[in-house]
Amino acid sequence: xxxxSIPDELLREVLLYLPRPSQNACLLTCKAVHAVAxxxxxxxxxxxxxxxxxxxxxxxxxxxxxxxxxxxxKARSIEILDYICRNPGFARVIQRLLVYAYxxxxxxxxxxxxxxxxxxxxxxxxxxxWAGVGWNMDPLQWRLRLTSFSVKSQMGIDYATVENAExxxxxxxxxxxxxxxxxxxxxxxxxxxxxMGSIPPNVFGRLTHLAIWNCKDLHHVDQxxxxxxxxxxxxxxxxxxxxxxxxxxxxATALPNLAQFKLMxxxxxDPDEEETDTLAIRDFIxxxxxxxxxxxxxxxxxxxxxxVLPKCERLSALGLDARGVSSDDDVKMLxxxxxxxxxxxxxxxxxxxxxxxxxxxxxxxxxxxxMPRLRFxxxxxxxxxxxxxxxxxxxxxxxxxxxxxxxxxxxxxxxVGPDGETIVGAERIQQAKLMLDxxxxxxxxxxxxxxxxxxxxx
Amino acid sequence: MVVLITxxxxxxxxxxxxxxxxxxxRDLLAAPWDPKxxxxxxxxxxLPIVSSDVLKKILEYCEHHKEEPFDxxxxxxxxxxxxxxxxxxxxxxxxxxxxxxxxxxxxxxxPPLVSLGSKAVANMMRGKDAEEICDMFNIEKDFEP
Lengths: 458, 145
What we know:
The complex is a heterodimer. By secondary structure, chain A is of the alpha/beta class.
């Protein structure tokens, strides 16, 4: 039987189970499969304005390589937008739009102009992620029925620098208008904290996913806990100041449906309040059916938090800032606490430059080898990042697909050798490439959640 | 008991509970039956697009899952959602029959089996380029970018 002899709705179901590269391959097979694959492949498009360096980042070897990648993405973005402008009917298949508008380069106005025209044709657009500084689109273009709207100032973990604060201030009016236009439909939102006031209380009640970044002033954060009863995912990112602990303590049992929680605090905890503040986090997360948890609060990871983790039986993605964990007993407790069925794990340690034989690492290495579903491990920074070390680690972790050591990332390659044995290899990939791979691969939801704090597109 | 008549005219007798895993058969059995039209069991249910080989495989699946509640709204978007080991062995035993099973399960309205079969077919396509997919599935490559 040929693939073309099955009904379109079944072919569509098959294609939906494929990762993006395989879907792309199907586009090039025959006209019948192409017709079914187009709405699937292009339901999400990603537009890039160019590389991060053009926004004033210091280029180093890694970034120079990444620049090439971003330049390729930029050229492809212009092609896609040109195609949509010439064929507006095609834009109807686009449901999710990702815009990486970091660079203010000579091509930015050209891309922006095409994007304004293209978006007007995207009549079925449901989700928008806008990342970057080039925010000067006419907000009237966004009179759509968005279910998901995410905006942030940089890709990945973001720090509330003065520069970003200015950018944030500049985009406030646009964010407020877009939320205002889409209050009936929005379910997933990622916005800077300062724009929280633009969400009416009744809209909070409909939200299922919310990420708040640049949390310097928590004035409106109470609204989440008081009104967002349907929330299943909450990320509070770039939190500054101790108020967050008062908020968590006051609402320890609020948000009963919460399954995903991320807390990223920028400052070291006050040593005098560390235990009390850690208890506030613990009380908030314990007794919840969490499947994803990321606690990036320097100083908070102690037995108070580790005690809770084994009870989180549904946990599939976990992020921990374990830089305060260094004694032998603490490391053993950490290893014992990590739930064995995780798919994705991001863990930070206080050590650097250890060898794989170091006794400090043995409890964790044993633990990783006992995790049958682990596909993504980002380990900061106990061992040097080298191909030999990555391959040695991946040999013991059967399902591992990606590994991050410090700030470098690797894709694991497994091939069958001449005698049927598995040969494990590792290929260095740039973080930006990893981000794009992860974003383009619907199977990597857990990894994406740890890499990206906003979860507006999943 | 229910008699199912396949496209190659084989009459297969099945317990009601097993046959009713199929939404199509469930609906047909629930429909009013006039005795003047003959003995219902003897008349059987014709399944003109399902061969006996495929139907036997599908009934094997239905038998295994007969205790489970009906799930007409079954949806799974996660390729890596845990697949029951029995299901995995069932669908991968003969990869080329997976196609036939998907098609027949769709006709018989057995959503979990459609999903399982679709995953198996998708798994056969993973990591292959356009040429390889064409070769594997007898597709005449008529698309030029």
